[in-house]
User: Which sequence fits this backbone?
């Protein structure tokens, strides 16, 4: 008998607003965000390791390191920042490495957060 | 000057966003069936105790055969004086299917549990065969088939 309904319960267990992709099938690159317990957070508005805060007005591109969990070598994905934080986030999401959400861990910080148990992320470089 | 930001990695005690299916199939199996089966979405029913969650946007992404992406922003509304906890949104006019070329992306507020019920119509390739034959039993069915991609 054909199915008549699909019932899902979605529960956000974090203190951030998150967007997820559901029912996209196995070809959906963003499906790995669902039911993932490993969090990757980039606190990009605060200096990290002595680097200056990211200035998106002067930036042109970014690179993001990623690899399959267990792999030894990081691969690099590259995108354009288009000179603004919002366009940078859109560009990051166009990489098809999962959905990256904007998070605000504290009052003076912009952060990017994603969840993934299949891919592992390394450094984010804003040029 | 380039700025480098290392990932702050942490392992959570439970999934950040958990999705479970209420029914005979668990979510992973249901998700894997999409493509072999397609589900025409006819209605979305949302239940949540947080009224702000009902106002969060739903993104319906469609990809055509050229790979172009079309994003439909499904805005919802509720009467703030009714203390509504559920919302039913007809989607018949959207022609939206769960068929592996699309993605359904709800936005979840922090620490919110959202119940979604999709009224669907299940479709599979054998629906094109109307006389009870199988895909492999009647090859003449494909005589007039035109490849348009």
Assistant:
């Amino acid at each position: 008998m054909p199915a008549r309904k699909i019932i899902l319960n979605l529960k956000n267990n974090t203190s951030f607003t998150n967007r997820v992709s559901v029912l996209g099938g196995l070809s959906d690159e963003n499906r790995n965000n669902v039911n993932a317990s490993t969090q990757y957070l980039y606190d990009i508005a605060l200096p990290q390791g002595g680097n200056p805060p990211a200035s998106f007005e002067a930036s042109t591109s970014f690179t993001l390191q990623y690899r399959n969990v267990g792999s030894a070598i990081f691969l690099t994905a590259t995108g354009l920042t288009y000179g603004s934080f919002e366009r940078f986030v859109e560009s990051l999401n166009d990489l098809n490495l999962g959905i990256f959400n904007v998070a605000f861990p504290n009052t003076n910080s912009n952060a990017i957060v994603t969840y993934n148990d299949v891919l592992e992320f390394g450094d984010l470089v804003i040029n | 000057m380039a700025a480098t930001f290392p990932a702050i990695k942490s392992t959570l005690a439970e999934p950040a966003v958990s999705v479970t299916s209420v029914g005979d199939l668990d979510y992973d199996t249901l998700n894997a069936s999409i493509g072999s089966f397609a589900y025409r979405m006819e209605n979305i029913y949302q239940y949540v105790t947080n009224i702000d969650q009902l106002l969060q946007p739903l993104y319906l992404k469609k990809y055509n055969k050229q790979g172009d992406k079309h994003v439909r922003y499904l805005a919802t509304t509720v009467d703030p004086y009714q203390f509504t906890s559920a919302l039913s949104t007809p989607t018949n006019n959207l022609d939206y299917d769960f068929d592996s070329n699309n993605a359904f992306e709800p936005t979840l507020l922090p620490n919110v549990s959202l119940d979604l019920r999709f009224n669907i119509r299940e479709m599979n390739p054998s629906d094109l065969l109307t006389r009870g034959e199988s895909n492999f039993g009647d090859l003449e069915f494909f005589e007039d088939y035109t490849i348009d991609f």
User: Anything to note?
Assistant: The two ends of chain B are 46 Å apart (CA to CA). Chain B touches chain A through 56 residues (CB under 8 Å). Residues 27-33 of chain B form the longest helix (7 residues). Chain B has two helices and ten strands.
